[in-house]
Design brief:
CATH architecture of the largest domain: 3-Layer(aba) Sandwich
Oligomer: single chain
Distance between the termini: 100 Å
CATH topology of the largest domain: Rossmann fold
Strand order of the largest sheet: 6-5-4-7-8-9-10-11-12
Order of helices and strands: HEHHEEEEEEHHEEEHEE
Strand content: 25-35%
Amino acid sequence: MRASIRYTLALCILALLATCLMAALEYSAGKKGSLKCSSLSVTIADSLENNFVSVSDIRGYIDAESGGYIGRALDSIDLAEMERIIDSKSAVLKSEAYVTGDGTLNISVTQRRPAVRFQRPDGGFYADRQGYIFPLQGNYTAYVPVVDGAIPVNASGPYKGKAGSEKEQEWIDSIIRLVTYMEESGVWDKNIVQITVRGNGDLVLVPRQGKEKFLFGKPDNIEDKFSRMEKYYTGIVPEKGEGYYSTVNLKYDGQIVCRK
């Protein structure tokens, strides 16, 4: 068979396949356009880890703010608007909206995962690993490290987003590095039960056992300070006994200053 004939046949086959594909797409689009939305299905992807929002919460947001969806043609539903409604909620990290051929509007939700809770006398807030601030939730409390005292961040009520100033955000990020180090150590997150911020910005860490309070200073040189805290437990406590000292100062480089 001549090369020119083979080439012509190949072009014909490709043209036929393209025609079939276009016809299938048109049929699918036509079928989708004729389908009506008959139900809403909501999935909370990480519901075993967090319970900030529930299926009923998401349904309520969509029912209240979408303008209705049941009985509407599937191709007339603004999926981007559905996602905008859900993503505007402070405890939601992201959502995905899509429709399926059975007439169902599907919403998949991933919640924000808090890394730390900041608690002040006038209220509190969470921050996730990215330093994003969002309010405490009335129906659920996450079991994460709590930092209380003189929190140097102006965020309260329904505030969400990054901190209001670069200095505040740097402080939030430094606290997240601290609690992340504690968590990843596999030791300190279980043994430190309280983190308090003094008026001068110094942190005080309170362990689960003993009466010692560790004056940590600013949330910097984290690995070095925890290394010295470990040396306190392995070198000083065996000699003096747990609780012999009331304050262990780790503020100063290379030093462990103990006071009764």
